[in-house]
Design brief:
Blueprint lengths: L7 E9 L21 H17 L4 E4 L14 H16 L5 E9 L3 E5 L10 H9 L8 E2 L2 E2 L3 E2 L2 E2 L2 H11 L3 E4 L15 H4 L6 E4 L6 H7 L14 E4 L24 E5 L4 H9 L1 H4 E2 L13 E8 L7 E4 L4 E6 L5 H12 L9 H12 L7 E9 L2 E8 L4 E4 L7 H6 L4 E3 L3 H5 L6 H9 L1 H49 L6 H38 L16 H37 L5 H21 L4 H35 L2 H27 L5 E6 L4 H10 L8 H4 L1 H14 L6 H10 L9 H15 L4 H7 L7 E7 L5 E4 L10 H14 L5 E4 L7 H15 L5 E4 L4 H5 L4 E8 L2 E8 L4 H11 L3 H10 L3
Parallel strand pairs: 1-2, 2-3, 9-10, 10-11, 16-25, 16-26, 20-24, 24-25
Antiparallel strand pairs: 1-12, 3-4, 4-9, 5-6, 7-8, 12-13, 14-15, 14-17, 17-18, 18-19, 21-22, 22-23, 26-27
Length: about 950
């Protein structure tokens, strides 16, 4: 434990020759001396190994022609290559090269025979013996310096014999060298029968991508080169006979590292090669750089569990690709996944479903000791690692080594999804529209941005709606006040003999009020200018002390000084303008201006009016009453002026309603388009399903909004037919999908009822009642809110059987609703196909249709595992074996606790044994079942 044990990519060159084959070795400076001297061989072996490291090789297959004619292992170059390997690796600060010993033989075409690494040169004698038993003793391997052909009874040794000896008996592997070139198996039609042998697992090609004959033969489109079952894998190798480099120190043709390929293995071995050849799509790559370097998806790096009640202390390092946790009942495999979830979901996340919160409580109860804790390390982006730690005894959940303001935000960067046992079934229940949420997750950034825009616009529309209602109320109040003013004016002007004086007094009052308001507004403007200047004085963007290391510091210093100087000038200009403005006000309305005299004249008009009343015989109490009416009239007129201004301001606000509503409708369309685009992208990977997105077609969402408008009176016609009317409206919007919403369809019909003739009878019959209901005092505000309510888009999935026939849809459209297992299968297919964050699933096979696991789920996993991390606990061997898990983590239950049994890829013997025992019930049980199937 403590490091990653799963499969990883290794750079391999499977056909390199050495100075051992002096006839073919091209470099004079590294040819071996005669007689051979150990110190000379050692020095040249070190040079050879350094070059292997320089070109970045991890694995080499040493394939000298016919191995060697010498019999003493101390004379073999390969012996010293093995012995010097560790020393040179330490000098280069790299892991030792994995050396697969072998030879190249001629059986009418060339084959490479490779074997497992050995620790000492003396162990190579058995390899030389293999060649001897095939018919070439050391003294017979070269004729005139040229390698002899493998022959038996005056004919080349058949490939079948070589395969039996090398692969079946000696646990080696045979590769047909330079298969489409001179002396290659596919260069001559006479070798078709050999190519068809199932034991031939791999051939060597010179070029990639494949072209011409090589492409046709290896992809099975050349009818002349038929082969039952799978065609062999293919690799690229250098056929190296040199260490030469060009001016840029890159390998030249036929030198080490000139051609290579990448193989995914736990540790390089013949078994790892064999499995890679059997699963070439997953485990062989011809990219120029390491394939994993191109993977940038977020992933969980490791989990460490200490002090758990039923699980031994574990430290598991995950593959960034596909991981399977296996084990018998009670071994703790599900608990391990729940610990991941427990750690990577904030305990303060109130959005978690109740059943998940309960699972968290159960998991917390297994971590009761003072030393119990869980550590999960993850990479949200390449090279940026964080470790989240939970210590239940201290009620702590935190990021190791740094303070964070909001833990949930940090954890969300991973975009991890967790599915416990039974959770797929819950998510796939009919009517849930969970597919919509999954598509939204795929278009996360765009959909979230649009959701924010929708909230903002709806908030503004709600404010405008409130302003519209206030405007209506103010208008009603204004009408009442205007009538009151009119009545008071009639009373005030009842005496015709004082109407002229009354009119003069009225005009003087209004003129005086205007002058006073003008003066007060100007004084308020001066104060506002002073407030602005005061606010500017504190806005100083000073460079902090930490700025010393910033890039472009000189620019920022100059910018700060320039802006500060401009700010000072701006403040001074504001201050000067305010002073000048104040002087104008004083000159216009001050004690030395004309205003006092003008104001006095306005007052004289009031006095003159009173004198006129008395001079015309009005009693003092009549004058007093008339003056009281005048004051009341003026007060009401002032209220009218205020209300008129308020109404005009509200109307100006409400004037933007239509534009805002159009903006909301555009956001709704943009949301639909974002979902459609995301669904189209998902569709490219979801081979077994078809995804469709329909604008505002989620019936449950519509029904929820429609019920809010329900008159709740089933004794009247409208209430009795409410559901039927709603269904007719919903269906009508499907026919008019260019209209922003069903609610706007009603508004269109309101202004042009003739359009209703093409609609259903129930709408025609009840439309007038419907409008009256929506306009009623009790419903109007709710209707205004519903108009701003979006009906959810309907995202539906259609699942196809392995024969290409439709199994039905998630929604049940057309009466073909998927079964529970089929819904789960469709949902899981979508989950895997969208997004980049890790997916952690506990025993998905329990919720899926069995016939889809191998035919559909396995291919999907194989496709997406290079694009995102998958962590699955499973009992189904199809997943770790046929989906080719990069890491299998096997746990066994012993003494009531789960402990590690084995980990790594299937190319590790202990891992394949664990898979057999745990998932197949042992090798014997597997063979017995196989026999009964009559395969």
């Amino acid at each position: 434990m403590g490091h990653y044990e799963g499969m990883k990519w290794h750079r391999c060159d499977f056909q390199v020759q050495t100075p051992e084959d002096s006839r073919h070795w091209q470099d004079a400076d590294t040819k071996l001396s005669e007689p051979r001297i150990e110190q000379d061989i050692q020095a040249k072996a070190r040079t050879y190994l350094r070059r292997c490291h320089e070109v970045g090789l991890h694995v080499i297959g040493v394939t000298d022609h016919n191995f060697s004619s010498r019999t003493d292992p101390r004379d073999w170059f390969l012996t010293h290559l093995i012995e010097q390997n560790k020393t040179v690796a330490e000098e280069c600060s790299r892991a030792p090269i994995v050396i697969l010993p072998g030879f190249e033989a001629d059986i009418g075409y060339h084959v490479l025979c490779l074997f497992d690494p050995v620790r000492k040169g003396a162990e190579l004698t058995s390899l030389s013996d293999v060649l001897s038993t095939l018919g070439l003793a050391p003294g017979e391997r070269f004729e005139g310096g040229l390698p002899a052909q493998l022959r038996s009874e005056n004919a080349p040794v058949p490939l079948r014999t070589v395969l039996a000896k090398v692969q079946d008996k000696e646990n080696g592997v045979v590769i047909a060298a330079h298969a489409f070139s001179n002396r290659g198996i596919c260069n001559d039609a006479m070798h078709k029968a050999d190519y068809a042998l199932p034991g031939l697992m791999c051939v060597e090609v010179s070029d990639y991508p494949l072209e011409g004959k090589a492409k046709a033969v290896l992809e099975g489109t050349d009818a002349a080169w038929v082969r039952e079952g799978r065609h062999p894998a293919y690799v690229r190798s250098s056929d190296a006979k040199s260490l030469a480099v060009d001016d840029e120190r890159q390998p030249v043709a036929n030198s080490i590292g000139y051609r290579y390929c990448w193989l995914k293995m736990s540790e390089p071995s013949i078994e790892a090669l064999r499995q890679a050849f059997l699963d070439k799509e997953s485990r062989i790559s011809f990219s120029s750089g390491c394939p994993s370097d191109a993977e940038s998806h977020p992933h969980i790096v490791s989990i460490k569990v200490k002090g758990a009640a039923f699980l031994d202390d574990q430290e598991l390092h995950f593959s960034p690709n596909f991981n399977c946790v296996i084990g018998g009942r009670g071994s703790g495999k599900s608990s391990l996944l729940e610990y991941l979830r427990f750690c990577l979901q904030s305990e303060r996340d109130d959005s978690l479903p109740e059943d998940i919160k309960e699972k968290h409580n159960v998991i917390r109860s297994t971590l009761q000791g003072a030393n119990a804790e869980v550590h999960v390390t993850f990479e949200a982006s390449p090279g940026v690692r964080d470790t989240v730690i939970i210590k239940p005894s201290e009620h702590k959940q935190y990021i190791e080594g740094r303070e964070v303001r909001d833990l949930a935000t940090v954890l969300e960067q991973l975009h991890a999804q967790f599915f416990s046992q039974g959770e797929l079934t819950r998510l796939a229940k009919p009517g849930q529209n969970h597919v919509l949420r999954l598509v939204d997750a795929a278009a996360h950034d765009k959909v979230n941005a649009l959701a924010r825009s929708e909230r903002d616009i709806k908030g503004e529309l709600e404010q405008l709606g409130a302003a519209s209602n206030r405007a209506k109320n103010v208008e009603a109040e204004l009408q009442k006040l205007a009538q009151e003013v009119e009545e008071l004016t009639r009373q005030w002007q009842a005496r015709s003999d004082i109407q002229a004086d009354a009119r003069a007094q009225q005009l003087a009052k209004r003129a005086s009020a205007f002058g006073t308001e003008l003066k007060e507004q100007a004084e308020a403007d001066v104060k506002a200018g002073g407030d602005l200047s005061a606010g500017l004085s504190g806005r100083i963007a000073a460079l902090p002390e930490t700025a010393a290391g910033w890039p472009q510091l000189v620019f920022l210093q100059d910018a700060s000084q320039t802006i500060q100087a401009a700010r000072v000038a701006y403040m001074q200009a504001v201050s000067d303008a305010a002073t000048a403005f104040e002087r104008v006000i004083n000159a216009t309305f001050g004690e030395t201006s004309s205003w006092p005299d003008v104001s006095a004249q306005f007052d004289e008009a009031e006095t003159g009016f009173a004198d006129a009343c008395r001079s015309k015989g009005l009693a003092p109490e009549d004058v007093s009453r008339l003056q009281e009416v005048g004051r009341a009239k003026d007060l009401k007129q002032s209220e009218v002026d205020i209300k008129s201004k308020q109404r005009d301001e509200l109307r100006a606000q409400v004037a933007g309603w239509s534009d805002k509503l159009a903006a909301l409708h555009q956001v709704w369309r943009d949301q639909f388009n974002a979902r459609k685009l995301a669904a189209d992208q998902i569709q490219k990977s979801a081979k077994a399903t078809t995804i469709s997105v329909a604008y505002m077609r989620d019936a449950e969402s519509f029904d929820a909004a429609w019920r809010r408008l329900n008159p709740n009176n089933n004794r009247k016609r409208l209430g009795k037919n409410w559901d039927e009317i709603g269904q007719a409206l919903f269906d009508a919007h499907a026919r008019h999908s260019d209209v922003p919403s069903p609610w706007e369809l009603i508004e269109l019909w309101r202004t042009s009822q003739a359009d209703l003739v093409d609609e259903s009878l129930v709408l025609l019959t009840h439309f007038t009642e419907l409008l009256a209901h929506l306009d009623s005092e009790s419903v109007r505000m709710t209707w205004e809110q519903v108009r701003l309510t979006r009906i959810a888009d309907l995202v539906d999935l259609e699942l196809f059987r392995p024969d290409g026939q439709s199994a039905g849809t998630m929604s049940g459209a057309g009466g073909r609703r998927l079964s529970e297992g089929q819904r789960n299968t469709a949902l899981l297919s979508l989950l895997l196909a969208q997004g980049r964050g890790p997916i952690v699933i506990d025993q998905p096979e329990d919720e899926l249709d069995a016939n889809y696991i191998f035919s559909d789920l396995v291919p999907i996993i194989r496709t997406v595992k290079s694009q995102r991390q998958l962590i699955v606990a499973t009992h189904n061997a199809n997943l770790p074996v046929n989906a080719d898990a990069e890491l299998i983590y096997a746990i066994e239950a012993k003494d009531g606790r789960g402990r590690l049994l084995a980990q790594g890829g299937l190319d590790r013997a202990q891992v394949s044994r664990a898979v057999l025992d745990v998932m197949e019930g042992s090798e014997t049980a597997f063979k017995r079942r196989s026999e009964k199937y009559h395969f």
